[in-house]
Q: What sequence folds into this?
């Protein structure tokens, strides 16, 4: 068949396919997905879909008929098992599909607990796919005892859903504080308080020794010696990029599928985008795990597959919904040395990450204005005086006029 083949029918794969068509590409586009469903959004899985407020139809990135209208051949429900780089083809269920150019958008997989500590027991879940959430949905009944392992965004969002539905929740985080890997202590403190107010018990600096039970989990032994009776467990301890296919094909791997600044892998006919791709950034290589990156990178890769030679410069943004708090994040906070806080009347709060005089990133809680202004400043490389940021009597919008 030839043309462009995309492996992975998730956020990046879908964005790439749609962009190819919007750029006028008329060749064959085939998108292959291991999951049996058309491309859908993952963020609601730990938020409104888990809560039962979002339907499956609302989860789809596009109505399933859209792909047919676009002339994108979807092959769903089976993984690509090998890439034959010499023959320029991929293998799916014994069938070989040839390509002129190949894009890998294979995403990532959740880390699981080892069998030795009970990770295999029934009633132990991760949240990555629609099937994961559909399988665990029946567990979310009022009064049941849920243990969440991991105090990152997914664990905290699941806790918020569970608390809203009247579950008894304990969340453990082995680091000294929740969100330690991704946010400042100020943001951790903020969310710890919010969860405490909703009755979620958060234990920090505490890890799981083991889960026990016959076939099904019924008990958890924690590092502080305590034991909990549990009805089910959600494990949210991070993800690893899905690189197996690329690795087997001999592509360069470096914490993800290594690409150049254009999104091209070590094979000139193969590209990568989204959670699985590790790309050049400020002298090193980084990998981002968010929707904004998946969309922007995939669209740049689509342009470059058609010869544009555009460099991908990440402009990270992210959000999380917990109870009535909307957190919006922009920028990358790595290397920050101080936090400037801005607290407005009405509960809007934002934490601004500075390195020296340089504004790196921003966490805004129920403060859409701070987020909007902060994003524009960071994207433009403008660093306002921290004293101005901290002064709530100064309208942030005035900074954009300067
Ligand atoms: P994915 O969306 O994971 O898609 C990859 C697809 O490739 C998968 O369907 C996988 O099955 C398939 N695949 C893998 N290997 C093969 C193979 N060999 N053959 C065929 N198919 C294959 N981001 C935000 O910005 N904000 C949020 O609030 C947020 N919340 C999240 C909540 C949850 C519960 C989860 C799981 C993620 C969340 N994210 C959020 C992250 C965001 O969803 C991901 O960064 C984004 O989906 C990455 O897109 P992707 O296309 O790279 O990977």
A:
């Amino acid at each position: 068949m030839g043309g462009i083949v995309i492996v992975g029918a998730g956020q990046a794969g879908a964005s790439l396919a749609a962009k190819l068509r919007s750029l006028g590409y008329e060749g064959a586009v085939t998108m292959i997905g291991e999951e049996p469903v058309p491309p859908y959004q993952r963020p609601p899985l730990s938020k409104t879909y888990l809560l039962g407020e979002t339907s499956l139809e609302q989860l789809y990135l596009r109505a399933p008929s859209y792909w047919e209208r676009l002339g994108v051949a979807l092959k769903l429900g089976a993984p690509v098992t090998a890439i034959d780089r010499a023959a320029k083809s991929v293998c799916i269920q014994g069938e070989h599909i040839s390509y002129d150019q190949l894009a890998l958008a294979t995403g990532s997989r959740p880390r699981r607990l080892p069998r030795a500590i009970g990770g295999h027991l029934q009633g132990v879940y991760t949240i990555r796919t629609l099937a994961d959430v559909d399988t665990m949905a029946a567990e979310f009944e009022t009064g049941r005892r849920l243990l969440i392992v991991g105090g990152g965004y997914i664990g905290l969002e699941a806790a918020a859903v569970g608390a809203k539905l009247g579950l008894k929740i304990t969340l453990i985080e082995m680091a000294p504080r929740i969100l330690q890997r991704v946010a400042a202590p100020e943001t951790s403190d903020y969310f710890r308080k919010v969860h405490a107010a909703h009755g979620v018990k958060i234990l920090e600096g505490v890890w799981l020794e083991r889960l026990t039970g016959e076939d099904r989990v019924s008990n958890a032994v924690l590092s502080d010696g305590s034991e909990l009776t549990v009805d089910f467990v959600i494990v949210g301890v991070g993800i690893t990029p899905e690189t197996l296919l690329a690795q087997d094909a001999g592509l360069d791997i470096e914490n993800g599928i290594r690409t150049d600044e254009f999104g091209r892998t070590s094979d000139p006919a193969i590209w990568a985008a989204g959670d699985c791709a590790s790309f050049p950034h400020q002298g090193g290589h980084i990998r981002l795990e968010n929707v904004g990156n998946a969309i922007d990178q995939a669209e740049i890769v689509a342009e470059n597959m058609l010869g544009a030679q555009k460099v991908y410069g990440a402009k990270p943004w992210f959000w999380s919904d917990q109870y009535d708090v909307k957190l919006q994040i922009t920028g990358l906070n790595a290397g920050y040395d101080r936090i400037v806080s801005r607290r407005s009347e009405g509960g809007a709060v934002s934490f601004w990450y500075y390195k020296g005089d340089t504004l790196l990133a921003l966490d805004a809680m129920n403060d859409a204005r701070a987020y909007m202004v902060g994003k524009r400043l960071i994207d433009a490389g403008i660093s306002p005086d921290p004293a101005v940021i901290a002064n709530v009597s100064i309208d942030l919008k005035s900074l954009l006029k300067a």
Q: What stands out?
A: The chain has a mean pLDDT of 96.
